[in-house]
Design a protein that fits this description.
93 residues; mainly alpha; two-stranded antiparallel sheet; 5 helices; 2 strands; 6% strand; elongated
Length: 93
């Protein structure tokens, strides 16, 4: 389906449902926002959104993370790949 056709179809659905006009892409943001509002972890949201790093997720949606400590969330992205290709945390406990 061509992009213009999909957009017109989406606009018609919104109009029939009595929902204000929005971009299809806005549904993506709503999905991520609702996940965070319902207490899902930023890591889970990152995976669902297909973001390349947790930093990207936090930069876009960090203000929606309840009781967030942004620096703690940012540390989640400080990983490095070891020789076996496994993720190894750069933060030591």
């Amino acid at each position: 389906m061509e992009q213009n056709m999909a957009r017109k179809f989406f606009d018609r659905i919104l109009k029939k449902a009595g929902i204000r006009r929005m971009r299809f892409h806005d549904l993506r943001h709503t999905f991520a926002s609702q996940l965070l509002a319902n207490g899902e972890s930023p890591v889970y949201v990152k995976e669902q959104m297909g973001h390349s790093s947790i930093q990207m997720t936090v930069d876009i949606y960090g203000h929606l993370i309840p009781n967030s400590n942004r620096s703690a969330v940012d540390r989640l992205d400080q990983t490095q790949t070891n020789a076996n290709g496994l993720k190894k945390s750069a933060v030591t406990c």
